Amino acid sequence: MRAAGLRTGREAPMSTAQGLRVADVTVRIRGVTAVRGAALTVPPGTVTGLIGPDGAGKTTLCDVITGLRRPAAGTVHLDDADLTGSAARERARRGIARTFQEPERCRSRTVGESVRDAARRHAAERDHGGRTVRDRWTRRREAQRDAGARVGELLARDGIAEFADRPAREVPPGVARLAGLARALAAEPAVLLLDEPWAGLPDRRARALEVLLRDLAAEGVAVLVAGHDLEPVLGVCDVLHVLHGGRVIAAGPPAEVRADPRVRAAYLGEPGPVTTCRPSAAAGPRRAVRTRTPS
Ligand SMILES: Nc1ncnc2c1ncn2[C@@H]1O[C@H](COP(=O)(O)OP(=O)(O)OP(=O)(O)O)[C@@H](O)[C@H]1O
């Protein structure tokens, strides 16, 4: 089962499923090599962390995984399927969902309506089974009708039920990101990518998000969480990858990665071997590692 006591549109990931695998990905954007030969795996039932300073290439790698950006080289597999050349829509259909660092701001809708629309879209697109055309049509209609009923459940799970009737454009950025998470969960994902989900969240919501991510992993979802703040990602992930200048410079259990001299050099400014792989000048200045917003 995936996504949390929510009805599933796909079979649960089998224990033998390999999850998401990214290999040798290189991305060039307007003369900048944003990602250089990056590789990572996100197995079902785990939270995988992806940290790196601003400009390290985290969002670009998420874009490659979700099909929003074509890499110059490299591959993306989900279980046995090679998704490298497939469109974003096909990847979404196969169960890859994500949140964005800059959440979508719907001008005319409430938070609840935006989540309901996502749930209806998923109900319309997923395979409901059924032996005859009529069976399938009836099941799809029922699922679309039921989608509205899931909105409260999804918002409650994210801890933002009280924002259901607020215009999406008016809620604080952290809440807008959580609304994006509710929309992603509406798709009952097998793989969930979160880009900077803790940004702008007060401590109370940040802790609730950590619990939610662990719960999703326990339900079999392959969770990839990207961020530049070390602590929240360290606290929640089973395996951590560190991107620096577009390269994965360390990967492994969080405690080991944190102690790695290359990571300490990249993050804490300590002298270390990483000084030889700085991002190109076009990457621009990096901000200091931020701490969490107090509640
Ligand atoms: N549209 C673009 N045009 C030019 N350069 C880009 C573009 N998008 C990304 N880049 C460059 O690619 C590199 C990686 O950017 P990316 O946004 O993936 O990093 P990031 O780790 O997600 O950082 P941040 O947390 O600041 O978004 C940076 O050098 C960035 O300047």
UniProtKB/TrEMBL annotation:
Coiled coil: none annotated. Residues 114-132 have a biased composition (Basic and acidic residues). GO terms for molecular function: ATP binding. Keywords: ATP-binding, Nucleotide-binding, Transport. It comes from the Bacteria. Pfam families: ABC_tran, BCA_ABC_TP_C. Residues 109-132 are annotated as: Disordered. Residues 20-270 form the ABC transporter domain. InterPro entries: AAA+_ATPase, ABC_AA/LPS_Transport, ABC_transporter-like_ATP-bd, BCA_ABC_TP_C, P-loop_NTPase. This is ABC transporter ATP-binding protein.
